[in-house]
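Subject: Sanity check before I submit

Could someone independently write out the structure tokens for this chain? I want to compare against mine line by line before I put it in a report. The sequence has 261 residues.
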Amino acid sequence: MLDHIPFAAEAEPEWAAFVAIDWADRKHVWKLASTALAQPEHGEFDNTPEAIDSWATGLARRFPGRQLAVCLEQSRGALVYALLKYPHLVLFSVHPKTAADYRKTFAPSGAKADPSDTASLLDLLMRHRQCLRCLQPETPGTRLLQALVEQRRRLVDEKTRQKLRLVDCLKLYFPQLLRWFDDVDTPLVADLLQRWPSLRQLQRARPDTLRKFFHHHNCRQEERIQQRITAIYDAMPLTEDSAVVEGGSLQARSFKSASTK
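---
Independent answer below. Compare away.
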């Protein structure tokens, strides 16, 4: 959702300070260096909108009208989106592998720790920022399209995972459904499992009840309906182990067809 562009050294502003941030779920650790400071400063702020704003606006008051170069191991995410709205902060993204390799110059073991992370990121920013990518937001329309594409991909992946889990579940106690229906991820199969989650329960249903059920789900081919009904009554359970059957039935009923959500 962000455009990564090389930052030309000759086009650099006169930076007020350089900042490295090691982000985390709860707190972000930062380190700041400036020619006006004898020693780098460091601290942390909570991962909340209020704390991020307090930290960013504090820098704006401290360095009025000037820009700060900010380096972090992230090219997208909540912290990046929050910081992009502050014009005095220019964000530089470092790939995690690049950061890990560079960190070894400070800690040969490669051990990860917040203080050493910010120190290596800050050194990388100050010495080699011409090799880093500057984060620039794309147009709102482009970012919205990318977000929708990513969401759709996640939904498709989740649907596939749910379907595979249901298939694995049925193989353990009710494999006939995988033969009777071409696709188990349908409202028909989902409703059937809600009503008759095991073969023995399905076999106790009357033929007229099963026929009405199939008609209700737009199955109109009488020959196919009769084939399924005959197959249901002729089927033999894979196992009579109550633990397996009851456990599988409960699990199968927990799945919902994506078409019914």
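---
OP: Matches mine. For the report I'm noting this point. The mean pLDDT is 87.
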